[in-house]
Amino acid sequence: MNINQIRYFLAIVKTGNFSNAAFDCYISQSSISKQIKALEDELGVILFTREHSKVKLTDAGKTFNKYALSYFEYYQDMLVSLEYYQHCKQAIIRIGSIPIVSSYGIANKIGLFTKQFSNNNICIDMYENTQFDVVNAIQNDVSDMAFLRLEFLENIENYDISLFAKDSIVLVCHKDNTFAHKTTVSLQEIAPYPLMILDPHSSINHIIHNEFDKLNLPLKIQCVTTRHKILMEILSTNSAVTLLPQNLVDLRLFPNLKIIPLSNPIYSKVALVKLKSKKLNKISTNFWNFWQEQYKLDKT
Fold first, then answer.
1. Which keywords annotate this record (predicted)?
2. Are residues 175 and 225 both part of a single domain?
């Protein structure tokens, strides 16, 4: 028995099937199936019953689950405790982020941190992806903490949150667009026009859908993409419009674009988050505390 087998077992219990567990653990479904079969052979019991695409714990599986949860928690505690004695080992901070690192001063603050703790042989392991994937990375212990938007973050009560930005959603269009001369614009005015928006794995996508639904407005979508810079590149030579957080719109890079505030403001909150149950190593704890102090300084 090894720790990866325990991790895979717990992932299957959490997700309810092998394919989702394999996706969350970043391995193939055949690999996770082989590991669980090897675990069952070693223990001499069947842990799961298979029913179509879903699995259920057997009685033996339920008993094993209790011990697996405790074992994995003790294993995590052990790693954190031992790291204090590993003076020669490189200190790794695993940080997830949606694609906002260059837009909210995050990269600059990470640079300040590495300079302040330059004697600690730090390695910042950054994982950038959609909100959906970054949240999965936190929940599956791939990342220690992450920069996320708080809207539609499920089970938010399970997270420690260090809020550092409240960003306004704005209309973005080409300077020649009919909206460009307006000082503000309403969603009712935008509704007749096709929108280019971020993909459904982005919380911005959910914010836009939610606001249109509240007003019972149709949402005409012309283009969907995973990156906000792609939207702005298209807008630079296109008559379409988009809705984005204002801090994501860099007019220095895209001087042909225009920002128009919404007449009824919509906001998005950005924060550094971690699971309350997550025990951080020493250098990750230093980064968490450093970030909170930096936010206090920014507000003064």
1. DNA-binding, Transcription, Transcription regulation
2. yes
Cα-only R_g, the chain: 23
Instruction: At 286, list the tokens.
Output: 């230093």
CATH code for the domain in which residue 183 is found = 3.40.190.290
| Token couple for 247 | 């801090």
Which of 17, 47, 82 marks a domain boundary? 82
Separation of alpha carbons 156 and 60, rounded Å: 33
Which residues touch 282 (CB under 8 Å, ≥6 apart)?
83, 84, 91
Q: Render each residue's pLDDT in the chain as its tens digit; 300 residues.
A: 888 898 889 888 888 888 888 888 878 888 898 989 999 988 999 999 887 778 889 999 899 998 888 888 777 777 766 666 665 456 788 999 998 888 888 998 999 998 888 776 788 888 888 888 899 889 888 899 999 999 989 899 999 999 999 999 999 999 999 999 999 999 999 999 989 999 888 889 999 999 999 999 999 998 898 888 888 888 888 778 999 999 999 899 899 999 999 999 999 999 999 999 888 888 899 999 999 888 775 654
Strand pairing report for 159-174 and 241-245: antiparallel
Q: Which tokens is 12 given?
A: 């299957």
Residues in the chain: 300
Residue 49, helix vs strand vs coil: strand
Its pTM stands at 0.71
User: What pairs with residue 165 in β-bridges?
Assistant: 270
Range of the domain at 10: 3-82
E strand or H helix that includes residue 71: helix 59-83
The number of beta carbons lying within 10 Å of the beta carbon of residue 292 is 15
